[in-house]
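Hi everyone,

Forwarding the result from last night's run.
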Amino acid sequence: MPSGIYYWLDLLVGFGGPLLLLALLRAGKVGRADWRLFWIGAALGLAWEIPIFLLSKLTAVPVIFWKTPPPVPFLVLMISHTLWDGGLFLAGLWLVRWMCPAPTFARFRWAELAVLLVWGQLTALAVELSSISADAWIYVEGYPWNPTLFRLAGDPITPLIQLVWLAATVAFYVLALRLGATPPSNRRSPSP
């Protein structure tokens, strides 16, 4: 896929995600907890999107190399990626609800955390592989804290974003537990 099309699809999904979620919320298909957790996921995404974009744009220690510059200002792409992060966290939450026995997110369970961790790692890797395939951006290799794991078409796949998603997924799970991410239909009724 050409990088120009890749970037426009990236922006469409990033900015379209919250609009779709809002429509689902208004239609009663998702609850307010999902809406809040989407924004919590987006806020977690800001914790790495801001440093990655700022380091890559304003310093001599870039984290990302832009093989093809984006067609929009970097701030717009950073916001889009932050919205993507919120959507990926929310999709992981829905996956837990689908795969794990009810009630989900009522208490700590290793199975729930495992589903979120696998989802986070796979999606982080998929995003990195897709950007390399589209000649959009790559994570810069060669830093002691970001060695090359393997190569795809000569470009490095590095552990940086995998480690970021590992930590962020644990944080998201803890927040989902504290905010009661269990949907009403998934909760046990109180004992009499």
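The first strand starts at residue 64 and ends at 66.

Cheers,
N.
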